[in-house]
UniProtKB/TrEMBL annotation:
InterPro entries recorded: FHA_dom (IPR000253), SMAD_FHA_dom_sf (IPR008984), TIFA (IPR033621)
Domain of life: Eukaryota
Domain FHA: 49-121
Subcellular location: Cytoplasm
UniProt entry tagged with the keyword Metal-binding: no
Predominant subcellular localization, coarse grouping: cytoplasm
PANTHER family, per the entry: TRAF-INTERACTING PROTEIN WITH FHA DOMAIN-CONTAINING PROTEIN A (PTHR31266:SF2), TRAF-INTERACTING PROTEIN WITH FHA DOMAIN-CONTAINING PROTEIN A FAMILY MEMBER (PTHR31266)
SUPFAM superfamilies in the record: SMAD/FHA domain
UniProt keyword annotations, A-Z: Cytoplasm, Immunity, Innate immunity
Protein name: TRAF-interacting protein with FHA domain-containing protein A
Length: 188
């Protein structure tokens, strides 16, 4: 047998990809202490903290409007499961944190969805979880966004969304043509 066949199976590492955006990044350089485009290992039993206090936070944001400790991410394994997840906790007494549409007050925490947008103040962070088997540590991979992650735009009032049938043709198409939908055989 070759050494390749005897080698330990390589374990994949969970990775949290985070893309940061702030409208004043070009002028104020609030992300200058973050290590972009290089994966960093974090021990599984450590909370990854984000905020302006570099003595406490692993990820420092250079902005006086950011709390000393803004939020933390904790890696954990679900009870009676091999599934690993992250939870996010708001550690700011002054600023609410939103994860997708869920608003978190001070000390509130939720499971981090596999893909979500974290917002506080003018900060927008796209978080994407890449699964892995390791339970000893996880990795973070930080990126810098050139444009806003969330685009605020005023949309004209849209008609209420209606379910689309399996045929893929919405009944609202027929209603717009002043024709009522007719029942069809699947084979037609």
């Amino acid at each position: 047998m070759s050494s390749f066949e005897d080698a330990e199976t390589e374990e994949t590492v969970p990775c949290l990809h985070m893309t940061f955006y702030h409208p004043c990044q070009g002028e104020k350089m609030m992300f200058r202490c973050l290590n972009f485009c290089k994966r960093e290992q974090v021990r599984a039993d450590e909370a990854a903290k984000f905020g302006r206090d570099s003595s406490v936070c692993r990820y420092s944001l250079m902005d006086a409007r950011v709390s000393r400790i803004q939020f933390s991410l904790q890696f954990y394994r679900k009870l009676h499961s091999s599934e690993c997840c992250f939870e996010i906790k708001n550690l700011s007494k002054r600023t609410k944190l939103t994860v997708n549409q869920t608003e978190l007050g001070y000390l509130n925490k939720v499971d981090l969805p596999w893909r979500c947008v974290i917002c506080f103040g003018d900060y927008q962070i796209l978080a994407e979880v890449q699964e892995g088997e390791s339970v000893d540590y996880f990795e973070t991979h930080l990126h810098l966004a050139e444009a806003p992650i969330l685009q605020e735009r005023s949309l004209p009032s849209l008609p209420s969304l209606q379910p689309v049938p399996e045929s893929g043709i919405s009944s609202s198409i027929f209603l717009c043509q002043d024709k009522s939908p007719t029942e069809m055989d699947e084979n037609e």
